[in-house]
Amino acid sequence: MRKKTLSVMLGAAMAASLLSGCGGSSKPADVTTAAPAATTAAPAADTTAAPEADTEAPAADAASSDDLIVVGYAQVGAESDWRTANTESFKSTFTEENGYKLIFDDAQQKQENQIKAIRSFIQQDVDYIVVAPVVETGWEAVLQEAQEAGIPVILSDRMMDVDESLYECWVGGNFIKEGEDAGTWLAKYLEDQGRGDEEINIVTLQGTIGASAQVGRTEGFANILAEHSNWKMLDKQTGEFTQAKGQEVMESFLKSYDDIDVVVAENDNMAFGAIDAIKAAGKTCGPDGDIIIFSFDAVKAAFDAMIAGDLNAAFECNPLHGPRVDEIIKKLEKGETVEKIQYVDEAYFDTSMDLEAIKAERAY
């Protein structure tokens, strides 16, 4: 429940007891003015426009502002197409029209920036804090501060290794299952190619080490790898979830290993970098190429790469978390309990499918 309700009621009682009217000046601490510089989603709601209105307009504007649920979102950054889609999902959901004011912060993939943003949200007395943590550890102190301030915290995309009492719930993909699904797909693909018993040399472009997606996808694929004695993991290195780093690491792999059969890219953007490196080395990849390559996220650019014949498959990590978080907040506003772990729906796609038709219907 929002903490502002009590303060609004007290403010109304005090105003009623005054003999002389204060107009708009009676509510200097309105939440829409708490952090105007940080607001990206709803600047039009600021009460700074009130002086040009008539004498009753400031009070009406303030009341309207008090009705908005203020959400602070500490985003990882903008390292990938998936992250961009995730950000847009929140910005398009948490609008004034839907009853929200969103304060958005891009941490540029630095934990210290996210911690600073969360503390800023606490100081601004937001109603809810949403965090997509860059790594899993090191959050206890700042989440304790949020809890002491009575602000519910919702985790998006990535998990935190903290006591579950410090956050309301988590929304995201089942990363271990994604990795297992990829391994299962590879086994069937190799079998269909008549290579089921062949020795298969694999390299992995890992995401940011310690991030939930990296941990889960690595673990999930390793579970299937262990079932195949003829599969050999030659190397694993982080590509930091970026295309540039993915290309750099793939270039290193190609120099170190002459016979790479499979590239596991733990997100689409690293796969794009790997494809560039493979082509630059005079090799080919994809269904008709020298190297099998698949990725995770399944953004539209991955569909383009599959259609072009450069990428074999993409395993979906649904970035559209905004509507699910909206549902959660609405339940919490009603005093209802919510499930601690909430997985979003996900699928996989490969070149055996009608990718053009599927892509045309996708939002990301």
Detailed description of the structure:
Helix content is 40%, strand content 17%. α4 packs parallel to α5 (140-148), α6 (175-192) packs parallel to α7 and α8 crosses α9 (268-280). The radius of gyration is 24 Å and the shape is elongated. The longest helix has 18 residues, at 175-192. The protein has a 6-stranded parallel beta sheet with strand order 2-1-3-4-5-11, sandwiched between helices. Strands 7-6-8-9-10-12 form a 6-stranded mixed beta sheet, with helices on both faces. The protein is an alpha/beta fold and 364 residues long. It folds into 2 domains: 67-170 and 318-343, Response regulator (Rossmann fold); 173-316, Rossmann fold.
Architecture blueprint of SSEs:
Layout: H1 4-17, H2 57-66, E1 69-75, H3 81-93, E2 100-106, H4 111-123, E3 128-131, H5 140-148, E4 153-156, E5 169-172, H6 175-192, E6 200-206, H7 212-225, E7 231-238, H8 243-256, E8 262-265, H9 268-280, E9 292-297, H10 300-307, E10 313-316, H11 322-333, E11 341-343, E12 348-350, H12 355-360
Parallel strand pairs: 1-2, 1-3, 3-4, 4-5, 5-11, 6-7, 6-8, 8-9, 9-10
Antiparallel strand pairs: 10-12
Helix pairs in contact: 4-5, 6-7, 8-9
Question: In angstroms, what is the radius of gyration?
Answer: 24 Å
CATH class (first level) name of the largest domain: Alpha Beta
Order of strands across the biggest sheet?
2-1-3-4-5-11
What is the CATH-assigned architecture of the largest domain? 3-Layer(aba) Sandwich
% residues in beta strands: 15-25%
Q: What would the principal axes of the Cα set say about the shape?
A: elongated
Write out the CATH superfamily name of the largest domain.
Answer: Response regulator
What sequence of helices (H) and strands (E) makes up the elements?
A: HHEHEHEHEEHEHEHEHEHEHEEH
CATH topology of the largest domain: Rossmann fold
Structural class: alpha/beta
Query: Major beta sheet, specifics?
Result: 6 strands, parallel
Count of individual beta strands: 12
Through-space gap between termini? 33 Å
Low-confidence stretches: 4-63
DSSP helix fraction? 25-40%
Mean pLDDT: 86
Number of helices: 12
> What number of structural domains do the residues give?
2
